[in-house]
Design goal:
The complex is a heterodimer of chains A (314) and B (225). Chain A is built from eleven helices and one strand. Chain A is mostly helical and 314 residues long. The chains are: A mainly alpha (314), B mainly alpha (225). Chains A and B meet through helix 1, helix 5, helix 8, helix 10 and helix 11 of A and helix 2, helix 3, helix 4, helix 5 and helix 6 of B.
């Protein structure tokens, strides 16, 4: 294998690589063995601690309702944030300077504040000036925080998605006599949304990861929160953390794979203009994205911190 | 209007933001080191190292930071007895555990930023360098890395900004930083909106200049292709 950093290995490099592999393997094995030993010393490998996860009760009473709340909060947040983000994204491309200015300020403001602050503020706001019941309040607060933050990230995605379309699309629309609004709503936006789909799905990963924050700080009954109830019941802190982490990994892995499958499909499709906003562009908009909680947040940078490389149409 | 601020002195408003800055700086340096090591593994010619780097990044990126930080406190410290050299001082212990969690998490993003920077250098650059007779270390030192570093600044700046905001997750294990203080204040004082605005302003002040300066720098230093 050749890369920009090194050439295809010759006989000497091959020998060195084998040696390095062996040394690294030994180090890795020692490290894993050490973890295993420590777990064993602290009695964390006892079957009694792991056994609850083979029973139905642990799943139906704790983990699945928790996972359900995580997904519910994430889905609601996405459904509200998407149209809101579209409005602000389009406003950022407006011909009127003051519309651009206001939208830009709002978007940059919410992108530079940690999600946790938004959640805490929303929670207190609901305590004082609404009659949402205290069982419902954490969900409302978490969703509000997520919507404010993610709508501003999605605004950037929408803006980038529209800018990624070939200029000819706008020109052709004007040529057949469409007005500005018509061009946006029937030509640019539908194509941009298609191009954005992979980026939107990878933003879902960020949202899913951020819900965990509400579990700890606002007592929202999502997956991480139900883990602590479960661990209090079965006294299995370490195993419960491992199981919950695996659930998050599997869930987010499915979302990420779906995003890249979508991306590949869009890139291959002959109908589209070839503009696709991939997960990697998303990382530029919001490095937290494909990982996530940067959870609490993604990028926040100023206007100049944001760069988007538009891809030439093929 | 701002009278209530003087009621808080452990930590004070500035003290809490100072804690945020300390968390950011220490975990920033730590994750830069660990992330660079991971990136080196991910682009190395040794398949096992590449596999390890990829596995680490893909696992850590998919776990919420909150889970990692809460685990470092409830799991590492309470069960495995990792007291981070401060068995009695719980504030210091929480601070160090938060840094440990932030470093482990952020390093995965640093690694990806660096790797994508290296990937922007076209293969032809290295081939041309070899063609004019430069050896391996010269190629790396004079041709590839200078170009890679420049294109890495932008993505790394984004990671730094995200890290600044992510330090608030340390509130989950009670580190006395900005979000913890905001939670206390907002629950006890009447001026909800004012408190929200003050803390929001604090974070805008921390993140906006970073974004502007590093964004300007990365544009200035960008290799025009």
């Amino acid at each position: 294998m050749s890369s920009v950093l090194y050439d295809t290995p010759g006989p000497r490099a091959k020998r060195r690589n084998v040696l390095l592999s062996v040394v690294f393997f030994v180090l890795l094995a020692l490290f894993l063995w050490w973890i295993w030993r420590t777990m064993d010393d602290k009695g964390q490998l006892k079957w009694a601690l792991w056994e609850p996860f083979t029973t139905e009760q642990a799943w139906t009473t704790y983990l699945l309702p928790g996972l359900g709340d995580t997904l519910k909060a994430a889905a609601i947040a996405m459904v509200i944030a998407l149209p809101l983000g579209a409005v602000f994204g389009i406003a950022r491309l407006s011909d009127h300077r003051w519309v651009r200015g206001v939208a830009g300020t709002v978007v940059e403001f919410f992108r530079s504040i940690p999600v946790l602050l938004l959640m805490l503020f929303a929670n207190e706001f609901y305590v004082r000036s609404s009659d949402i019941s205290s069982e419902q309040r954490p969900l409302y607060a978490v969703v509000t925080g997520l919507v404010l933050y993610n709508a501003s990230v999605l605004a950037e995605v929408v803006k980038a998605g529209i800018l990624a379309l070939p200029r000819g699309q706008t020109e052709a629309a004007y040529a057949v006599g469409l007005r500005k609004g018509q061009t946006m709503s029937s030509i640019l936006l539908p194509q941009a949304v298609t191009a954005m789909l992979p980026a939107i799905v990878s933003q879902l990963v960020v949202i899913v990861k951020d819900t965990a924050l509400g579990g700890v700080m606002l007592n929202f009954t999502e997956l991480l929160n139900s883990r602590s109830t479960l661990a209090a019941n079965y006294a299995n802190v370490i195993p419960s953390f491992i199981v919950v982490a695996i659930i998050y990994i599997v869930l987010n892995f499915i979302l990420t794979s779906f995003a890249s499958w979508l991306e590949g499909r869009l890139r291959r499709s002959k109908k589209s203009t070839g503009a696709v906003l991939s997960a990697e562009d998303m990382e530029e908009l919001n490095p937290a994205a494909v990982g996530g909680t940067f959870g609490t947040g993604g990028e926040g940078g100023g206007p100049s911190g944001f760069t988007f490389t538009d891809k030439p149409p093929r | 209007m701002f009278d209530f601020l003087s009621d808080y002195d452990d930590p004070s408003l500035l003290g809490a933001f100072w804690m945020t800055v300390k968390l950011t700086v220490f975990s920033g340096v730590g994750s830069l080191v660990w992330g660079t090591l991971l990136a080196a593994m991910r682009v190395s010619p040794v398949p096992l190292m590449r596999g390890f780097g990829a596995a680490y990044v893909n696992i850590v990126r998919n776990i919420p930071l909150t889970v990692i930080i809460v685990f470092s406190s409830l799991g590492l410290a309470d069960i495995f007895g990792m007291t981070m050299g401060a068995p009695d001082d719980f504030d210091l212990q929480g601070f160090r555990l938060a840094i440990l969690g932030l470093v482990g998490y952020t390093a995965a993003f640093v690694c990806e930023a660096i790797r994508s920077g290296i990937n922007t250098v076209p293969l032809g650059q290295a081939e041309a360098a070899r063609a004019i007779g430069l050896n391996f270390s010269q190629t790396l030192r004079l041709i590839v890395l200078p170009q890679a570093f420049r294109s890495v600044i932008g993505p790394l700046a984004n990671v730094l900004i995200a890290l600044t905001k992510n330090t608030t997750v340390a509130a989950a294990i009670g580190v006395a930083e900005a979000a913890t203080l905001m939670k206390t204040m907002i629950e006890n004082e009447a001026q909800t909106l004012l408190i929200g605005a003050v803390f929001a302003f604090g974070f805008v002040v921390l993140t906006l200049p970073t974004g502007l300066i590093l964004g300007w720098l990365s544009k200035r230093l960008a290799v025009k292709r």
